[in-house]
Amino acid sequence: MTERQLQPLLHELVGVVLAPTSALGDAAGQIRPTGVQGVFHADARVLSRAELRVDDREPESLARGSVGPHAVRFVGLTRWLGDPGPDPTVRVERLRRVSPGGLTEEIQVVSTASVPVRAVVSVELACDLAPIEVVKSGGATEALEAKTGEPGELVWAAAGITVTVTGDGATTETGHGAATPRLTWPVELPPRGRVELSWRLDVDDPRAVVVCPPGEPAWSRPDLHADDRRLVRLIDRSLDDLRGLRLAEAGAPEDVFLGAGVPWFLTLFGRDSLWAARMMLPLGTDLAGGTLRVLARRQGARVDPATGEAPGKILHELRRHEFAPGDGLHLPPAYYGTVDATMLWVNLLHDAWCWGLPAEQIEPLLPQLEAALHWVGEHADADGDGLVEYIDTTGRGLANQGWKDSGDAVRFRDGTLAAPPIVLAEVQGYAHEAAVNGARLLDAFGRPGGDRWREHAAGLARRFRAAFWVDGPYGPQPALALDRDKRPVDSLTSNIGHLLGTGLLNGEEEAQVARLLGTDALAGAFGLRTMSTDDAGFSPLSYHCGSVWAHDTAIVLGNLARAGFRDTALTLADGLLGAAEAFDYRLPELYGGDDRSLLGRPVPYPAACRPQAWAAAGAVLLLQAATGLYPDVPGGTVRLAPLAGAQLGAVAAEHLTVAGAPVDVAVDRAGRPTITGLPAGLTVTVDATPTIPTPRRSAPTDHPVGG
Asked: Quick check: 423 pLDDT over 70?
């Protein structure tokens, strides 16, 4: 039997990140030469081994914990050292911190023994400079030969990358004298003494296409108080993770965007970077502005089937070289194989404008707006039927080009795969929203074409209504997609939740979609399942056919909350917060879609990225839904429609941002909001406080609002 080459598992590894550098090791702090463990920099594994030994033995793992946004501390025991007896008296602490272009480790040997302690501390090292796609596919790699440099220095070099490890005060061993290169320190501690050792990793990578941006994040960090402490902890951890995922292009460090996720996607991804920036708008518009400009500079200008480029189209992903992880996939360094990023770019531009992105940042992007709308109306509709479709004509690109981009993501109710070209439901919603939003921007800035795009949106809504609605087990439902024969792909999926708020559906249709989203078949897990349990293609650990994606759940619960469908939004919010608690508040890319009763906690998806930008940014979208803050700065209005109240509890968020001004929003347990700090000229409207049923969880009685 041929042995399968499998993607390595991630779920038990401990990660730390300051993009484009990240480190993944085991729970004991070791980085072992196996799987996806290693230190990565801009799509290359720059260190494949870093194993700590004391007297050639591994410390016994005891504990670990995060130390700020870019560091983690590991604690181990060396029970063969120190005083005899049951209590350990010598421990080893290992602080791993990622820095721009490298990594440092501080090692402390701490003794509470009554006798002196003598030992030899060593760190065994290796570097293979494996491309990320080779690691992702489970491919084997060989360690490179290490050279010695200055005292305490080891150097590896290949493919234009130079990796240097320096151990302060250490001796180096390489070649025949050591099985693997290593740094060595003999240590001697007096009774109750300690010693501190350190080593650092530096990467010189002039060909990297992404870099660590200078300075601190431009977004605000809200001071949050909530009855449900899970929300506070989730926001705190998510903002730390998002700080570590910031990136810039090598030639434009001032325009910051978010890399998609560790380890596979720590680069520019059109869809992911756009959604994450959109979710982050309550904390300011700078991230949105940077993301829009970066992608505008790479907007398609010509038709190129090999890369998927077309005039006006927005990029899918950017790499230093071809990305070929296996299964016939060969993506060029700049790849445009996405059907939705162009509409999402338009919608981010509009929403950032609504949150107060200044006109002087909007106006330079208007030509790119017009080009993007032209792509939606022309190139995105290859067969001229008025709907947006996709097909990979090369056989080397992504077969599916929506956010559910795995090869088996588009299935009929009976489990059979749909044949391309594919017309996705949510993409029609994005296109409708982009046409309406684009028309509003064109009107506001004195550009022609607004009426054309409003007519385009109206026609799209009519065609969608005629083609997509089917009978399902819970009544009428929008199909997931249309296949090449324009047959509705009749499975029930989370995609329909993305239609809410796009204007594609009327009020009655939105209410039916909300009912479908609230069924146990979709909402019975810790969040929203990507496919219902009634469909033959459902599997709780399928990447896109039954798992739960944190960003998907956040987007849909945000849409439900904004549209006034509180009960289903609250169900999804509670599931997402339960998942956050189970994952130590670092939400993974996705997790299992098992019923909540199975284990009382979500089952990990073993290859999920963590941290992931749009999973972490989903926490900010949840906070926005809780406070109900919906500004329209150019329209002069701010709507308050909070999800918080008796069921979710009271919430108070200070230092949200509207039109560049710090804004505080508080919602009491009855759901009554107050807002302070709004710039002059904005009129506040408050939705009527809903009648709230008996809470699912009793609120604390010690403080009306706590931290």
From this structure: yes
